[in-house]
Write a structure and sequence with these properties.
The chain is built from three helices and nine strands; from the N terminus they run αββαββββαβββ. It has helices at 8-19, 42-51, 120-131; strands at 23-29, 32-38, 59-67, 81-89, 94-101, 109-111, 134-136, 165-170, 175-180. The chain starts with 7 loop residues before the first helix and ends in a 23-residue tail after the last strand. It has a five-stranded mixed β-sheet with strand order 1-2-5-4-3. Strands 6-7 form a two-stranded parallel ribbon.
Length: 203
C-alpha cells in the first residue's frame, strides 16, 4: 500500500496540535515545515515528535549547528547559536525541521538526544567540534573531524580563515608538532556578486 506524503500545511496543523504550547513558531516555506522551540523544550519536543501517533518521526536524518552571527552579511539579532534537526517519518512519509536557539552565546549547552535517536551520536560530536556546542548527557563528546589538540571551532563565523596553528611532522623529534600559521593570507577566488534576479526569467 502506498503512503502519500502529507501536505506540509496539514502536517503543520498536526504538529502544532501535538506540541501545543512548546511551539514558539512554525512555518511552511518551499514546501518544508520548520518548527522552532525554546532550548528548554528541545528534548521534550523531540520526544513528542518521535512518539506522537500523528508524528511518528522514527528517523533523525541530520543534526547540525548554525552560527547566526553576521548571518546573510547582517548584524546579529537575537541568539547566536542554533541546533537544527531534520526528522523523517518513514511510516507516515513526512518530514520536519526542528530548530532551537541555544540560550548562552558564550557557553552554548543543549541536552543530548542520543537517547531518542542513536544516530545523533556523531552528529552531536560534529556540532561540538565545529561550533563548540556542548551536548549535555552525551556519553562520548569529543572532537570528530579535527585533531584532539585543535584550537577553536572552525565553523564559527569569527574563526580565522587560516586557523590559529598549523601542524607538521618534525623529523628530528619524530613526531607531529604544532606551530604558528606560516601561510600568508591571500584571496585566490574573486568574490562574485550576482544581480538580484540572476538566472530568473528575462523581463
Amino acid at each position: 500500500m502506498t503512503v502519500y506524503a502529507v501536505n506540509p500545511h496539514t502536517l503543520k496543523t498536526q504538529i502544532d496540535a501535538a506540541l501545543g504550547d512548546l511551539v514558539k513558531s512554525s512555518a511552511v516555506a518551499l514546501g518544508e515545515l520548520t518548527v522552532v522551540v525554546d532550548a528548554a523544550n528541545y528534548f521534550q519536543a523531540a520526544q513528542i515528535l518521535r512518539d506522537h501517533p500523528a508524528c511518528c518521526f522514527e528517523q533523525m536524518v541530520d543534526l547540525c549547528g548554525v552560527d547566526y552571527s553576521a548571518y546573510k552579511n547582517q548584524a546579529q539579532s537575537g541568539l547566536r547559536f542554533c541546533v537544527v534537526l531534520h526528522l523523517l517519518s518513514v511510516s507516515l512519509n513526512q518530514r520536519v525541521r526542528l530548530k532551537a536557539f541555544v540560550t548562552d552565546d558564550l557557553a552554548p549547552v543543549m541536552p543530548s538526544i542520543c537517547g531518542l535517536w542513536s544516530s545523533a551520536n556523531w552528529f552531536e560530536r560534529e556540532a561540538f567540534d565545529l561550533f563548540g556546542i556542548v551536548f549535555e548527557g552525551h556519553n562520548d563528546l569529543r572532537r570528530i573531524l579535527t585533531d584532539y589538540g585543535f584550537i577553536g571551532h572552525p565553523f564559527r563565523k569569527d574563526f580565522p580563515m587560516l586557523g590559529n596553528v598549523e601542524m607538521r611532522y618534525d623529523a628530528e623529534q619524530k613526531r607531529v608538532v604544532y606551530q604558528p600559521v606560516t601561510i600568508e593570507p591571500r584571496e585566490i577566488t574573486p568574490r562574485i556578486i550576482r544581480e538580484e534576479n540572476y538566472g530568473g526569467p528575462a523581463n
